[in-house]
Amino acid sequence: MKSNAMTHLGKALRLAMAGALALGLAACDQEQNFGKTGKGIDSAFGTGSRQQAAELPPADPRREKLDLAANGAGDATLAAKVKAAISSNPSLRSVTVDVNAVNGVVTLYGTADTPVMSHQAAMIALNVDGVRSVKNEMVIVRGS
Question: Rounded distance, CA 114 to CA 93, Å?
Fold first, then answer.
């Protein structure tokens, strides 16, 4: 016969595991900034950008126009690369995804059968060269 302490310990352990699982699933919808080489904790949480901006020289407006034009083509290319990477994964055949990229920030739109598939698509996108972060806006629809 189990003691009361063991019964309560088992319940507490199951409750802690359920809480950890819920937090993990809730994080699936959050912007993904982790796992890329060269990304520190500041870039993951967005706290280092103010200091970095103060250290940069003033921008040249003529150069900005050229950069914007070049970056528009680069954004479309990056979005296409991310979509191809996700589409080429056999376990994500049922995922419907549209990809938008702006300055290396990729946003995923579409549907997935499970939260795991949605998260897997975001992780694949995060590992594409040129992607700085991923915002996962995918919706979970069973049988999509």
Answer: 13
Rg (CA), the chain: 20
Residue the block writes with tokens 């809730």: 26
Residue pLDDT, tens place only, 8-18: 666 666 766 66
Handedness of CA 83, 86, 88, 91 (dihedral sign): negative
* Tokens standing for residue 41: 């904790």
Tokens describing residue 77: 């290319």
**How many residues are listed for the chain in this entry?**
144
- Calpha distance 13→5 (Å, rounded): 12
Q: What is the DSSP string of 43-112?
A: HHHT-SHHHHHHHSPPPPHHHHHHHHHHHHHHHHHHHHHHHHHHHT-GGGTT-EEEEEEETTEEEEEEEE
Q: Report how far residue 75's alpha carbon sits from residue 73's, in angstroms, rounded to the nearest whole number.
A: 5
Both tokens assigned to 46? 């967005």
Fold entry, domain 31-140: GMP Synthetase; Chain A, domain 3 (3.30.300)
The pTM (predicted TM-score) of the whole model is: 0.52
